[in-house]
Task: inverse folding
């Protein structure tokens, strides 16, 4: 009984943290040029695919074609709202590698390294010419620690796990990419922000009365701690809610609701008027256990709601495919 009450109190704290992420970020937004990553959650610790101590390697590929201009929540045509330059599109092809190690049932740490292949095009009204940036570079790495604990409730044990995340995003990505004409890409398009960001989060996972099914909720706050070359990215907050059903011993069906909120960028090199927004996506997916230690997965993410400050490029859908290896 005491253990159950302690768990309920911890769960309430975790849910309060996730709710506060949504509340404190209610006015925040996203960048204009289209540097983007999918919001799909492939944190298998939160989802419970594997729970044993040991090392895991995850590699995923993302495709995001941002070819739709938006103002507020409305779609707009190129040139409909006069600007000094007209955004045309940004195609993001990202590779994201994550190496995770669980020391025991409670403590663990993960290191994430992204590589972005980005192709951005816009029309400069002042110079009356098209400009393009196409590059492939490493982005900003993340180091994220965690602590979690579990309880079992009910006559047929129902496993409940609450966890907390803490870590940093490091300024490892380049911030001075130029195109073939020597023009430097806008700060929101660069592989890195140049800043060190604090990461804080919480998650909760529970099995459900329906056999072989579970659900999770996870919230993560990313708060820049400094600025770099007169640029500071906006605060970022995300909340993911997901359901998993193991249809067969190998095939899992997944469905997620992903919410992202970002604050306006600030600084002389920023574009506050055209940065930040609120985004909600629905992400159905599949996972397949190739072996007991190798799991492949894929998701399709469909935008359900998008609101941007100013005029920004958005994507109607994106795709994710990857694998996780336990060793």
Result:
């Amino acid at each position: 009984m005491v253990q159950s009450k302690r768990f309920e109190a911890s769960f309430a704290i975790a849910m309060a943290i996730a709710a506060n992420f949504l509340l404190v970020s209610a006015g925040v937004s996203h960048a204009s040029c289209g540097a983007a990553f999918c919001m799909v959650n492939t944190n298998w610790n939160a989802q419970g695919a594997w729970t044993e101590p040991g090392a895991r390697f995850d590699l995923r590929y993302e495709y995001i074609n941002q070819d739709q201009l938006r103002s507020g929540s409305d779609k707009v045509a190129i040139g409909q709202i006069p600007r000094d330059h007209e955004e045309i599109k940004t195609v993001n092809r990202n590779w994201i590698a994550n190496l995770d190690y669980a020391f025991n049932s409670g403590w663990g740490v993960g290191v994430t390294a992204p590589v972005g292949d980005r192709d951005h095009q816009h029309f400069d009204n002042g110079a009356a010419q098209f400009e393009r940036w196409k590059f492939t570079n490493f982005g900003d790495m993340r180091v994220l620690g965690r602590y979690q604990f579990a309880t079992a409730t009910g006559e047929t044990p129902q496993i409940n796990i609450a966890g907390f995340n803490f870590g940093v995003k490091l300024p490892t990505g380049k911030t001075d990419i130029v195109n073939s004409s020597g023009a430097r890409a806008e700060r929101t398009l660069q592989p890195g922000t140049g800043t060190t960001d604090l990461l804080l989060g919480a998650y909760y996972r529970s099995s459900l009365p329906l056999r072989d099914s579970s659900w999770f909720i996870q919230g993560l706050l990313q708060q820049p701690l400094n600025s770099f070359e007169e640029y500071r990215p906006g605060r970022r907050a995300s909340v993911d809610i997901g359901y998993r059903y193991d249809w067969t011993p190998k095939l899992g069906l997944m469905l997620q609701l992903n919410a992202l909120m970002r604050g306006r960028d600030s600084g002389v090199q920023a574009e506050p008027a055209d940065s930040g927004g609120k985004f909600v996506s629905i992400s159905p997916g599949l996972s397949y256990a190739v072996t007991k230690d190798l799991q492949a997965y894929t998701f399709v993410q469909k935008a359900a709601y998008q609101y941007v400050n100013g005029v920004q490029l958005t994507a109607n859908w994106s795709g994710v495919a990857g694998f996780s290896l336990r060793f």
